[in-house]
């Protein structure tokens, strides 16, 4: 334990956090990613330095460091002086690089860009053309071509050629949908490249010029100012005293990092003289030399970690692949069975019935019949329609196949800063030690007792003067500034230049009362900016020459003013801002709000300060303390002479001497207003909601309680409770397990209701697989102080325990976890690298997540309906004519051409309307789908589509075929069955010869079967759109479930049937014929019968939900 504390101190990665110090906890880590490993490597790898800034053993030129840790442990750019940096990179400290040299380096080393994964378009095209059902259909194409060749047939049969071309068209149609899905609708975003700013200012040939950031080269001198984004990893060689960088995009922490021009740490990642690509400069200005660019930067290596992971198939892709395997397996089985029967029996006994070419066509007819060729395109249409609905709800899906996965999500891991919270800090409370209040209360009081434009007067009440002192402390001890162009806006809407903490304090000071007449009364004379060593900021002021009385009224008559010194030993005002536990040792008194006088800081008042501090911290607030003191320039000059460094030391000594506490402010990053309802909705949907943040445990737990993530009043469990569950009074059962720790069902963990847990990053590194089993059983978890690698581990651990994980985040540090999650969700206001790694982008509020989950479940429900609609006519009713033809020896009642038309055209039109269906019941009230058990296609759907609806449609369609044959040829079913081509023509009409019977009337009968299936699908689509409700309860016309597109789809299918059967050139080529009007009308009552039979089934299920009918219902 001692060793671990020493490690943390030596890393210089500590940041003051009031409550955690007060409780004696380990100091929080400031920048965790890679740092500990890098420092450990420093200790164990003492090597020599090469000419390129790498230490340790030399490596061959073509071998890089073995890991990211090795790389950052070996660079030493931060330890070099500016002169050494210029010498190493051959750069002039005033002129920069020569333009010619920069162009040479650009040609040699390439552009300053981040690599992105480039897809293999050859593999993609091959996957489109030969993937899924297409691989089997190509066999059909080859077979049809072979059967068309004269070598196997005396006469060329153009129908086989037309079938081959038609199947190729179907394959290309499916491939086009897949390509459209990938390249058009998915709109793969390459916004990670935008992490590099478009332009930057560099010194070339002594001139400060603007160039594209992509053309930066190593050795360039880059000039940065307020608001700039760092274009590469830079070694700072010049920086103003107030220069600060916002590293939140990397670390997840909102505290700005001050810049330095000398090394502040042995660890490259910790040193403040390094500016990392993608971070922002929020204060000051600086000059840095490019030391790493593109993929070599820290940002580039995180990008490599993100894009280097193998893409995992989504759940819907796995489900469709499973369905394809089942259908192809059944197809091969049926084709094999037919072939075995033919070669062992039919070909021997009835050689003229099925010749070899005819048999091959029959086998391919079996393939064409059983495979629902239209399913891939209908699935793509379904996903596209749901994706469009998501976009209308401010959700942008980057990949259609991810949409359905949302319906299976049972774990949501969300970042805090900028995701659960607004990433906008505000002062919510302030306090004197003897009085607590809020900004609104203070403003109201000042408005009642003073005039807004009036300066403080000595006859103002004591409480008003004390409040004015606190207001001035927040305004003056501050380096943030309002943007001049936004000064006409309300204070809450003004843009501020500065870090988040200073911005919050500045906004508070301006909101309490009008400061426009007050601030000009003070002039700053000295400043010590905040830094990680001191952890406080100090500003020294004197009164202005124009208004010298204001500083005396508020802070004492001996205060000095500009241009007027009554006593050379007068004091200047010192204001100090920092964490209470840092400044408290320097304080001897506090300002009383009641009397506006300093009071002695007794142990009782220190306890009161600690109480306020603890109460605010438990509400998720960051506590800052503002103090005042005195600085006497006369004594400083006497002690230091003209030495600048000595003056700074004297300022620090005097300024921190006998400080008086003016007051405390509580700063909070407010939760998003919609987040509480969002978490409740996600939990109602059966998804556990966890927080994964780089923030500190106490603050994160407080935020968790505010937003409803922690619902229990008791203190959350910690890692110690995982190691020893008996601490919470849990009992061990007879099998040696803890009774209430939860168990797992395959695919859906059963968790402990009402249980909450807080774990830190250091806890995660120590956890065993058994401890992870216990952790994954908790309902409410906050993972605090986590690094990107630990966030990634959290995701993978839950996935290994059957969790379907969604991760939300907005920073670069979230990117690896976003990429590894089953669904990565980024906020549109987040970093570009997070947006690149995510699957869904939230364009609006966080409350879009429950909507996305509902739509994800709706797409699964609609896909089941789509497949349930396609299978009866597009598979089951098409295979039976082939089987009847083969085994019963009757004419084929449906041709291969008409089978393809049903699958790819007439079924597709109503199917497109079916994807427009709204939810039948509240989908968020259902538990997440168990992806390991509840498949897209289940035995119940096969039962519904094949055995029930499919058999009814098969019976009616074949019945109408034989009715037509009897009516128009005189040959009944009994005269054709078991004849195998030797039909009994005894009762055949005399004007019909054999050729006319086989080539006209059988073809027309096939069209009758085709028309009957098209029309009976109308009844099927009206029944399949409701799983439980009657059509009378949810008809397609009423407003609640209105879907008029169904009728448009039916009409389109009817027009396609007319087109196929009535167009003369199609009749000639594809051997179709016009259908008598009677057989256009007879299928209508058959469609009604399909609808009524399913209505009876639904009524039975509703009446007897626990009966065998309820069990078998899909």
TrEMBL record:
Listed A to Z, the keywords are:
ATP-binding, Cell membrane, Membrane, Nucleotide-binding, Translocase, Transmembrane, Transmembrane helix
What SUPFAM superfamilies does this protein map onto? Calcium ATPase, transduction domain A, Calcium ATPase, transmembrane domain M, HAD-like, Metal cation-transporting ATPase, ATP-binding domain N
Q: What is its main location?
A: membrane
Q: Does the keyword Transmembrane helix apply?
A: yes
Q: Which residues form the Cation-transporting P-type ATPase N-terminal domain?
A: 76-149
Write out the transmembrane intervals: 125-151, 157-180, 323-347, 359-386, 941-964, 1000-1023, 1044-1065, 1077-1093
The name under which this protein is listed is Cation-transporting P-type ATPase N-terminal domain-containing protein
């Amino acid at each position: 334990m001692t060793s671990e504390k020493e490690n943390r101190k030596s890393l210089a990665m500590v940041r003051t956090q009031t409550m955690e110090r007060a409780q004696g906890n380990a100091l929080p880590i400031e920048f965790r990613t890679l740092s500990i490993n890098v420092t450990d490597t420093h200790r164990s790898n003492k090597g020599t330095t090469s000419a390129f800034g790498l230490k340790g053993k030399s490596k061959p030129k073509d071998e890089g460091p073995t890991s990211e840790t090795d790389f950052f442990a070996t660079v030493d750019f931060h330890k070099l002086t500016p002169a050494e940096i210029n010498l190493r990179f051959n750069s002039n400290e005033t002129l920069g690089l020569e333009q010619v040299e920069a162009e040479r380096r650009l040609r040699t080393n390439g552009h300053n860009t981040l690599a992105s994964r480039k897809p293999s378009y050859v593999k993609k095209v091959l996957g489109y053309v030969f993937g899924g059902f297409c691989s089997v259909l190509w066999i059909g194409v080859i077979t049809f071509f072979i059967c068309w060749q004269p070598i196997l047939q005396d006469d060329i049969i153009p129908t086989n050629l037309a079938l081959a071309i038609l199947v190729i068209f179907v394959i290309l149609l499916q491939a086009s949908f897949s390509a459209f899905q990938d390249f058009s609708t998915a709109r793969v975003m390459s916004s990670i490249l935008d992490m590099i700013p478009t332009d930057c200012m560099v010194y070339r040939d002594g001139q400060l010029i603007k160039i594209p950031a992509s053309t930066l080269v190593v050795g360039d001198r880059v000039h940065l100012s307020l608001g700039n984004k760092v274009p590469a990893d830079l070694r700072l060689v010049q920086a103003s005293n107030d220069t600060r960088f916002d590293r939140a995009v990397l670390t997840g922490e909102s505290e700005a990092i001050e810049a330095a021009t000398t090394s502040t740490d042995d660890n490259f990642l910790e040193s403040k003289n390094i500016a990392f690509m993608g971070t922002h400069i929020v204060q000051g200005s600086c000059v840095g030399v490019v030391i790493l660019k593109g993929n070599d930067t820290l940002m580039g290596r995180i990008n490599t970690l993100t894009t280097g992971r193998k893409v995992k198939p989504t759940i819907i892709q796995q489900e469709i692949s499973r369905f394809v395997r089942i259908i192809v397996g059944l197809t091969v089985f049926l084709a094999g069975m037919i072939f075995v029967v033919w070669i062992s029996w039919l070909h021997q006994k009835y050689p003229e019935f099925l010749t070899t070419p005819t048999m091959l066509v029959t086998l391919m007819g079996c393939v064409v019949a059983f495979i629902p060729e239209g399913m891939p395109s209908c699935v793509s249409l379904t996903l596209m329609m749901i994706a469009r609905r998501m976009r209308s709800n401010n959700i942008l899906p980057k990949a259609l196949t991810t949409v359905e996965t949302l319906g299976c999500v049972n774990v949501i891991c969300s970042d805090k800063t900028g995701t659960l919270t607004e990433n906008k800090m505000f002062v919510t409370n302030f306090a004197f030690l003897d009085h607590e209040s809020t900004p609104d209360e203070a403003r109201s009081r000042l408005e009642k007792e003073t005039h807004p434009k009036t300066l403080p007067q000595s006859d103002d009440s004591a409480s008003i003067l004390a409040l004015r002192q606190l207001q001035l402390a927040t305004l003056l001890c501050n380096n943030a500034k309002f943007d001049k162009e936004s000064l006409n806006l309300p204070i809450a809407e003004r843009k501020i230049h500065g870090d988040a903490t200073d911005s919050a304090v500045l906004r508070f000071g301006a909101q309490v009362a009008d400061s426009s007449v007050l601030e000009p009364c003070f002039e700053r004379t000295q400043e010590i900016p905040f830094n990680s060593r001191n952890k406080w900021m100090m500003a020294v002021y004197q009164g202005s020459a124009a208004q010298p009385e204001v500083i005396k009224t508020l802070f004492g008559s001996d205060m000095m003013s500009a241009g007027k010194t009554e006593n050379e030993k007068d004091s200047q005002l010192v204001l100090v801002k920092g964490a209470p536990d840092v400044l408290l040792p320097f304080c001897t008194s506090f300002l009383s709000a009641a009397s506006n006088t300093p009071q002695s800081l007794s142990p009782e008042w220190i306890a009161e300060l600690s109480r306020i501090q603890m109460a605010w911290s438990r509400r998720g607030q960051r506590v800052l303390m503002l103090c005042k003191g005195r600085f006497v320039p006369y004594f400083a000059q006497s002690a230091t002479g003209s030495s600048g460094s000595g003056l700074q030391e004297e300022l620090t000594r005097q300024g921190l001497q006998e400080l008086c506490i003016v007051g405390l402010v509580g700063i909070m990053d407010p939760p998003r207003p919609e987040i509480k309802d969002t978490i409740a909705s996600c939990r109602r949907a059966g998804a556990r909601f966890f927080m994964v943040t780089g923030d500190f445990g106490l603050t994160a737990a407080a935020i968790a309680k505010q937003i409803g993530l922690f619902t229990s009043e008791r203190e959350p469990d910690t890692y110690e409770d995982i190691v020893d569950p008996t601490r919470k009074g849990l009992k061990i059962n007879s099998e040696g397990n803890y009774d209430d720790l939860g168990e797992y069902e395959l695919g859906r963990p059963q968790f402990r209701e009402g249980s909450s847990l807080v774990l830190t990053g250091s806890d995660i590194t120590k956890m065993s697989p058994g401890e992870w089993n216990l952790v994954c059983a908790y309902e409410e978890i906050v993972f605090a102080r986590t690094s990107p690698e630990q966030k990634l581990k959290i995701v993978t651990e839950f996935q290994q325990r059957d969790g379907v994980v969604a991760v939300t985040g907005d920073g670069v540090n979230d990117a690896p976890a976003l990429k590894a999650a089953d669904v990565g969700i980024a906020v549109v206001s987040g970093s570009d690298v997070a947006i690149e790694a995510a699957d869904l982008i939230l364009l609006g509020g966080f409350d879009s997540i429950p909507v996305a989950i509902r739509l994800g479940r709706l797409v699964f429900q609609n896909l089941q309906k789509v497949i349930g609609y396609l299978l009866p006519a597009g598979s089951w009713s098409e295979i039976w004519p082939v089987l009847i033809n083969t085994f019963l020896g009757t004419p084929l009642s449906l041709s291969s051409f008409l089978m393809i038309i049903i699958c790819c055209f007439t079924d597709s039109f109503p199917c497109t309307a079916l994807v427009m269906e709204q939810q039948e019941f509240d989908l968020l009230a259902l538990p997440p789908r168990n992806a390991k058990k509840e498949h897209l296609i289940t035995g119940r759907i096969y039962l519904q589509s094949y055995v029930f609806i499919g058999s009814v449609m098969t019976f009616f369609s074949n019945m109408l075929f034989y009715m037509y044959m009897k009516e128009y040829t005189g040959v009944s079913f009994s005269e054709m069955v078991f004849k195998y081509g030797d039909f009994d023509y005894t009762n055949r009409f005399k004007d019909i010869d054999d050729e006319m019977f086989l080539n006209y009337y059988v073809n027309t009968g096939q069209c009758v079967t085709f028309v009957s299936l098209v029309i009976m699908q109308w009844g099927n689509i009206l029944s399949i759109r409701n799983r439980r409700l009657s059509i009378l309860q949810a008809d397609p016309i009423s407003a609640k479930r209105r879907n008029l597109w169904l009728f448009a789809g039916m009409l389109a299918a009817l027009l396609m049937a007319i087109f196929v059967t009535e167009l003369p050139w199609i009749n000639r080529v594809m051997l179709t014929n016009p259908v008598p009007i009677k057989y256009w009308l007879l299928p209508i009552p058959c469609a009604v019968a399909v609808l009524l039979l399913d209505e009876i089934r639904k009524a039975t299920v509703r009446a007897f939900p626990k009966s065998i009918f309820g069990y078998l219902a899909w």
